[in-house]
Amino acid sequence: MLEFFSYDFMLRSLLASILIGATCSIVGVFVVLQGLSFIGAGIAHAAFAGVALAFLIGSNPFILAIIFSLIMVWLSGVLSEKGSLNLDATIGILFSLTMALAVLFIGLMKQYNADLYGYLFGSILSISKGDLKVISLISFSVLLLVRLFFKEFHLLAFDREMAEASGLPARKLFFLLLTLMAVTIVMSLKATGELLVIALIVIPASSAYQLTHSMGKMMLISAAFGVSASILGLIASFYLDIPSGSSIVILLSLAFALSVVFSPKKKCSARIYQRFNEEASKKEVNPNE
Question: Which is nearest to 229 in space by CA: 216, 246, 209, 206?
C-alpha cells in the first residue's frame, strides 16, 4: 500500500480524485433534484467539441471547453424560455449539434491524437501540477458559491415558483447553477473523460437521495459516495492495471444498487402501500363505510 504513495503522479491523482469526487457529487444534488441530468450530458459533449477544436487549431483545450460548454448551457436556458420547445428538446438539439461538431473536428485532423482521446475516456493518472492547481481553484470556488447560495438553491430545487414569489432572482440563480454545472464538468473532463463525467454528477446524488429526506444530509452522503468511489477506483486502477474512470463508475453503480436495496424510502413506500391495501379490503368488506 505504501508503494501507492511513493509516486508523485499518484499523489496528484489522489488529490484530484478527492476534489473532483466531492465537487461533482455536491453539485449533482441540485442536478438530480431539478431533473437536469440530460443537460449535464449535453454540457459534456459540448466541452469535448471544444477540446477537439482546440487540438485541431492548436489552442488551449480547457479554455475552448469552457467556452463551448457555457455557450451550450446558456443557449439551452435562453431557448427554453424564449422558444416554444421545452428544455429537454432544446438540449437534445444542441446535444446533437455539439456531438456533430466534435466528430467534424476529429475528422479534419490529419493524424491520430492520443491526448484528445484521453479527454474522451479519461486519464486521471496524467494529471499535472498545473491541472491540479486549476482543479483546486475551481473546486473551492464552486463549493464556496454552493455554500453562499445554499438556501436559495435549496428553495429553487423544490419550488421555483415559490422562490420567485419570495423575491429571489430565480432566473439568475438558475443560470448560476447551470454555469456551476458547466465549470464542474469541464474541470473533471481530463480526469474522468467525456463519456463518464456525468456519472460522477448523477450517481452519487441519486444514491444519497435513496437514503435521506434531508437535503443537507443528502449533500454529505453524496460527497461521501463520490470521494470514496474516486479513491477506491484510483487504488484499484493502480494495482489491477485497469482504467480508473470505469473503476470509479462501477463502484458508484454498486453503491447505488445497495442504496436502492436498503433505502428507508422503499420501506416507507411499502408500508404505505400495505396500509392502502388494508383500508381498501376493509371497504370491500364494509361497503357502507
Answer: 246
